[in-house]
Amino acid sequence: MRHGRQRGRGTSGPYRRTPSRALAAVLLAVLALPACTAGDDGGSGTAGQQADAAVAEGDIVVASGRDVTGKGGIRQKLIEQWNRQQEEKGSGPRARLVELPGSADQQRSQLLGALQSGSAEYDVVNLDVTWVPEFADAGLVQPLPDELLDGDFIPSVAATARWGGKTYAIPFNSDVGLLFYRPDYLKKAGVTDTQLGAGTDWSTVQRLIGTVGDAGRSAADGYEKGWTTQLAPYEGLTVNGIEAFASADEGLSLTDGAGRYTGSAAKLEAGLKELRERTQAPYTLGDAGRSDEAESLGDFADGRTAFLRHWPYAYRTLHQSLTDQQLGVAPLPGRAVLGGQNLAVTKASKRGPAAQALIRFLTGQESERCLLDAGFAATRLSAYNDNALTCRVAKPPVPAAPNAESTDRMPRDEHGRPKYARDTLLPALQNAVQRPRTPLYGAFTQTFTTQLRRLYADKPPSDKQLANDLHAKLKSALPHP
Fold it and tell me: Are 345 and 203 part of one and the same domain?
């Protein structure tokens, strides 16, 4: 998954809004992340300068995007735990985390430039799952022993780490589309059963949206439309599109094992029809067409919609401003897309064995339980199913003073896991689909989003015409049989 396009709607015009307290709280939780940090010292300098300093000290340098659990978050805590273990042994290299600034696309460009030019000697890189084929095909990361990808990893998640029959990365944290909803809105509309389950389809969601609207919710209490998602022209639109396409045709695969385009105009037309029906104006917040993850999250927290398509980290973030009675979560109707990040060893690393040992630690059973407890989607089955497994590395935040309110309001089960993890999150991960796998994923997603945006033009083309155009463009952008 690619989080965090830090983009506003603009400073003027009809779309400018003053954030409410709920919206401000959520945006603060999502956006107040470190721009670039290599630890808790808050030091300045470019990512390349930090990496060079780390190499001089003999550290294993880990390059990653920003941690959605915040500055000094769980990734940094795991790195610190590794360093403590090295100190206790009296030998072994320390590790240092370098967080790359900017959006996911900017981070990808930074990593590609650094590894191709050798300007920053990273040892381990945290790759978006869609980047693995590209970095592997370009020879920028090393094949890893298959034994590192053991049977405890969720099978669907483990598949994102391989390319061309080889293991190039190990799943660190996963992601999957989920449906968040407002049970309090539904109850006020007379819906007695507000527990949406695995069998829920989009027609049911649309019927519930109609019920909420008929019950008289209006702009007076903040409510505007039934649901929102991420339809701005970036990766969020690609994800929503693939989820609709895969739901319309469960056997749909737009690429084969070699990354070649295998779609057809007929299959694309069915997917476009599904996407159009999901995002039609009577149900969807108008601002969804200009929204990324942060903005759609804020709109939902602000009460503007009753439903939201988002990622697992929203469960923890939304509970900072909404109570358990105001927030529900369910599997996304139809098929959901996998996201997440995988750890790989760079081809140029001079610390290959040590880097592999670090990856083994960061993706081990206890580390994955720590990631789950912090709000990420863990990649191992044991994190969800082993009740004896606990996180000793980093506990949830505690009150700073007696009687102070904890900043961790996420509901947990009797074993300390997020309350929804075992019954909702794990099945969603197991049933999720991947985006097209190709070394030319950048060309695919740019083509895909450019064409899908035409659905929301003042005079959109027919599904048939758009399908024919999209088919031709994808054949041009990708190799095909």
Answer: no
Total count of residues recorded for the chain: 481
For residue 443, give the nearest of 472, 478, 475, 469 by alpha carbon. Answer: 478
**b/e burial code for range 283-304 (CB count within 10 A of at least 16 → b):** bbbebbbbbbbbbbbbbbbbbb
Helix, strand or coil, per DSSP, at residue 139: coil
87 and 152 part of one domain: yes
Give the pLDDT confidence score for residue 23 in this predicted structure: 52
Residue 14: inside a domain, yes or no? no
Please tell me the distance from the alpha carbon of residue 440 to that of residue 87, in angstroms, as a whole number.
42
Residue 92: band (very low, low, confident or very high) from pLDDT cuts 50, 70, 90: confident
Q: Whole-angstrom Cα distance, residue 40 to residue 426?
A: 32
Count of structural domains within the chain:
2
Examine the pLDDT at 15 and tell me if it is beyond 50: no
DSSP string, 339-393: EEEEEEEBTT-S-HHHHHHHHHHHTSHHHHHHHHHHTSBPSBHHHHH-TT----S
The reply to whether 321 and 282 lie within a common domain is: yes
Same domain, 252 and 365: no
> E-assigned strands of 266-337?
307-310, 328-331
Range of the domain at 51: 34-175+340-416
**Inside any domain, residue 5:** no
Residue 391 vs residues 190, 224, 361, 368, 413: alpha-carbon distances, Å: 41, 41, 13, 9, 14
Domain at 220, CATH number = 3.40.190.10
Judged against a pLDDT cut of 90, whether residue 69 lies above it is answered with no
The pLDDT of residue 412? 95
Q: Looking at the structure, do residues 116 and 182 belong to the same domain, yes or no?
A: no
Q: Which long-range contacts (CB under 8 A, 24 or more apart) does 81-88 make?
A: 81/393, 81/394, 82/358, 82/361, 82/362, 85/361
- CA 385: distance to chain centroid? 22
Q: Is the pLDDT of residue 401 over 90?
A: no
- Does 87 fall in a domain? yes
Residues 77 and 195 reside in one and the same domain: no
Nearest C-alpha neighbor of 81 from the set 453, 292, 369:
369
0.90 surpassed by pTM: no
**What number of other Cβ atoms are within 10 A of residue 107's Cβ?**
25
Which helix (H) or strand (E) segment holds residue 23: the answer is helix 21-31
Contact 2, 128 (CB under 8 A): yes
Note whether 122 and 346 are within 8 A (CB): yes
